Amino acid sequence: MISFTLNPPPPTTHFLHTPFLSPPIPTLTPHHKPTKLHRTTTSAIIIPSSSNPPPKPNPQQQQQLQKLYQPFRPPPSQSPIPPKYRNLDTPARLDVLTNRLGVWYEYAPLIPPLIQDGFDPSTLEEITGISGAEQNILVVGAQVRESLVQSDVDPEILEFFDKGGAELLYEIRLLSNNQRADAAKYMLENKFEPSDAQELARAIKDYPRRRGDRGWERFDYTLPADCLAFMYYRQALEYRESELRTSALEKALSVAVSDRAKEWITKELEGKINEGEGQGRGGGVIDGVKVPVVRLNLGEIAEATVVAVFPVCNSEDKSKGVEEAPWEYRGKGHFGIVEADKGWKRWVVLPAWAPVMGVKEGGVAVAFSDGRALPWRVNRRYKEESILVVADRGRKEVTEDDGFYLISSEDELKLERGATLKEKGCTECLGSVVIVVRPPRESNDDISPEEWD
């Protein structure tokens, strides 16, 4: 970071005359009798002038202005201005905001009209003391509250947000109207803080995208508590330490409401869930496929508490790339620095899904340009996007008829069913396939939130 310290200019006798500054005080000389000055506290309100618009900048100046930092502007108001504020002039509205005259959701709708009148958010902050971020929270929170009013929620729920409720309602802004009403009721029942509300909103929004995850169908999406419990449950599966895993599962159990969710979490705590039960994503089994097919979500790796690292080779490298990839690589030391038994150019980081964490040594990720290498019927989307196949080279024996194995056939890498390989008399492969990963997408092609509203 480079910082500059500018020397202040020397005093000058020239004064800057503007409509906003009073004329300078005359300089006292020995021939004048000293005048006693009384300090008084004044407040100035700078109202943007619309009568004399500034000259339009030339194209070069416009290009320079576009590169400057653009301050945040609160969204247009969708909340009606209360009748007692509608006939107020601009100075009076600024006074309401400065002194917080009224309840927050009553004076919040005054902010967008002032922005439209030409006030910059930073100027509003100087006049009223309300920061730009707080302006946004107030305006959005008032909009969310108005949607609750339109949904005819109980007055008791609305009263809970009368004092300091803007931050709580701001966190559930991305939910649908029905989801907001259920979330607001749940926040009232559990006396939520803003951080709790953010976690709840993320859990509700994220649940449809987790379709096919382990135990997903056991939780009730219409219940905010079950969505939150599923998030805690999913986080528990990422822990390697048994104590952390048990603690997270107990937390999920304490939050869950539906009987099916409680039963499933209890079975997980007692270790009564069979390996592979409830796993897979995007509908779980595809045409009888017994291997998880996972769509990586945007930001999923950043949110994961535990991750796995694998060396990557291209399918064009054929069997040579799979065989030459490092076998041993693990995190060491306090910082978890990854060390491998040999140098390798390409690596990939994946969330700690259960199939991935089952690979001890010899794991490798093979990048295919499209899904035509998969041994089942694929749709158009599979053919248009690349896939990543994680294989365990420590399990080369073909044992399971329903399993899938990485092989080199006709000078190319492909996946094949165990039953098919046994029919051909093939008993060994390059590695057993543990998971197929599809790339993240902006839009979720597995399920849309509208199907749940």
Q: Indicate the proportion of strand residues.
A: 5-15%
Number of strands: 10
What distance lies between the first and last C-alpha atoms, to the nearest angstrom? 49 Å
How many helices?
Answer: 19
List segments where confidence is low: pLDDT < 50 over at least 5 consecutive residues.
1-47, 275-289, 443-453
What global shape is seen? elongated
Radius of gyration equals 31 Å
Q: Structural class per helix/strand content?
A: alpha+beta
Largest sheet: 8 strands, mixed
Order of helices and strands: HHHHHHHHHHHHHHEHEHEEEHEHEEEHE
Q: Helicity range of the residues?
A: 25-40%
Average pLDDT rating: 77
How would you characterize this protein structure?
The chain is of the alpha+beta class and about 450 residues long. About 35% of the residues lie in helices and about 10% in strands. It contains 19 helices and 10 strands. Strands 1, 2, 5, 6, 7, 8, 9 and 10 form an 8-stranded mixed sheet that branches. A two-stranded antiparallel sheet has the order 3-4. A hairpin with a 2-residue loop joins β8 and β9. α11 crosses α12 (about 225-235) and α13 runs antiparallel to α14 (about 260-270). Mean pLDDT is about 75; it is low at about 1-45, about 275-290 and about 445-453.
Task: Please specify the SSE layout and strand pairing.
Layout (H helix, E strand, L loop, with lengths): L58 H9 L15 H4 L3 H9 L5 H4 L3 H6 L4 H8 L3 H19 L4 H6 L5 H6 L5 H14 L3 H13 L17 H13 L5 H14 L3 H12 L22 E3 L4 H4 L3 E8 L3 H7 L4 E4 L4 E4 L6 E5 L2 H4 L5 E6 L11 H5 L2 E6 L11 E6 L2 E6 H6 L7 E8 L15
Parallel strand pairs: 1-10, 2-6
Antiparallel strand pairs: 2-5, 3-4, 6-7, 7-10, 8-9, 8-10
Helix pairs in contact: 11-12, 12-13, 13-14
